[in-house]
Amino acid sequence: MALAEPGARGRLLRWPRLLLFGDSITEYSFQENGWGAYLAERLVRKCDVVNRGISGYNTRWAKLILPRLITESADGVVAVTIFFGANDSALKELNPKQHVPLEEYAANLKSMVQYLKAVDISADRIILITPPPLQESAWEKACLAKGDKLNRCNATTGQYAQACVQVARECSTDVLDLWTLMQKNQDFSSYLSDGLHLSAKGNSFVAAQLWSRLENKLSALPSLLPYWRDVDHTNPEASLL
């Protein structure tokens, strides 16, 4: 049987998009039991969850590439997460390539939020995420295994987290303060696999916290295409075109 003529195929289906923008903690979020994979599962047939995590990146580099990810035509972008700071907060004397000074980090975040607003992504659709706390002894072991010295510290990471929260306040966006929330439990090491990146428990924690902020924003999204039991099998064109 020949396919229907192009003009008879109905409107092009355009899936809404949730963009996850960040460093390795975002890039790895689509692995098994990752927080990005959790969001994709919750939003299946409602929204594409697009992973734009780039391992090792900081906000200095991120602000340069954001306009290449979301152009002036931002139609269909229903929400954006911006999750940087774990690399920016690296100690300058030990990791100058990734380090970004605190004031510049805040300015870069603000610049990215302002760009998103300029392409009609409103503040209520933007979520900033602070870096998680750093478990120094575990991360030191990871550094030593690579022949490096401990190149981050939790107190410094906390300063970057506070700056992220302040930017969200000034820009009227939502914020997920992982640095504070994870340390409400005195031993937060179980949230981290190597002192820096998320463990399975940490991924579950981020997924739950982030979903609580996204659910209301995305609750109105309809399911795309009818449930299979609702398709008229005698005349599928009537249901699907």
Automatic annotation (TrEMBL):
Belongs to the 'GDSL' lipolytic enzyme family. IAH1 subfamily. PANTHER family: ISOAMYL ACETATE-HYDROLYZING ESTERASE 1, ISOAMYL ACETATE-HYDROLYZING ESTERASE 1 HOMOLOG. InterPro entries: GDSL, Iah1-like, SGNH_hydro_sf. Keywords: Hydrolase. Pfam families: Lipase_GDSL (PF00657). Probable lipase. This is Isoamyl acetate-hydrolyzing esterase 1 homolog. It comes from Elachura formosa (spotted wren-babbler). GO terms for molecular function: hydrolase activity, acting on ester bonds. It comes from the Eukaryota. CDD domains: Isoamyl_acetate_hydrolase_like. Gene3D superfamilies: SGNH hydrolase.
